[in-house]
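hey so i finally got around to running the thing on that chain from the lab meeting. sorry it took forever, my laptop kept dying and i had to restart like 3 times. anyway pasting the input first so we r on the same page abt which one it is
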Amino acid sequence: MTDKWSRNPLDPVSQMLVPRHYGSVPTLFAAPKARKPSELAGADLAFLGIPWSAPVPDSRMGAAAVSYIGTTLTPQAFRSNSLKYGGYLPELDVDVFEHYRLIDYGDSQVFEDIRDTFEDVVSRVGHIIDQGAVPITIGGNSGPSSYAVLQAIAARAGGPTAVVNFDAHHDNFRGEWSEDTAEQPRWGGTWARRILDLPGVEPARYFHIGLRGPRNDKAAFDRFLEKGVDRAHILTYRDIAQARRRGFDEWAAAIAVQVSDGAAVVWIAIDPDVLDLSASPDFGDEPLGLHTEEICLLAYELGRAIGWRRLGGISFMAVPNTATSIHWICMYALLYALAGTVHASER
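ok and heres what got predicted. didnt touch it at all, straight out
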């Protein structure tokens, strides 16, 4: 007769030794967590998940819908995938988390009325900034993960807010929020235009990096220009290809200086479709995009030109919850941007 089986099937398979929000969902990079605004005190950086999934538009059916379906789960998947990383980058010889204290502020709430969803994001990002921290956010589709985040940042900037939008697509169709239907809000295709009307956001300080491909229409430039965006600030694949031939490092540094010049704060927005198809086996939306090392370099140079005190925030949007390799690329871009701000303080 053998001894009794040593494990009860209901016993936990493993014990999580890092902070968790609920169930098996850890905090980002195993950082301390906060549930109330007062618990953000002492943070330099605060992470907020924005688990909003937009209805899939007719133009994004099938495989093209991957950045819509399931994005409610993106923040928790992103947190879980972060646990293999710390903050040290040997190639830059800097440990980001030796310089900055990160706190995970959980997720924003999603309501039936999208306006309530927006208000909750604005409020929570405001809590982060009011406690002296820089907001780091991930969504979730654009709208709550873009417009609402920037609304809170620009309102507290104390001067002009510059925007750097890494995106393959224009997202600047005309149309006001009041014209959207509850069943099909159009934030995915309109947010980059709508943010240009936010108080504190200067259209002349809007930079768009990575625009390319036939999902854009001929009027995309006109719609930006009629809002006051400088055509020279809309950088397409052609600009990137020229930079590769002439010297990408120098080009990236020059763009970063231009972005930071005269801005009170800079908000960095990254849609992973800015990356080339070859960057990730899990997700790819368009060819002719940025390579992983290029977005990391651009993030680093932006951080170095801006510095921590003028970093308004870093937001990732439309990130598929199942695209693990995209999550890791986003983490690299985040750490590189923060490393840039560390090196800025040392100059």
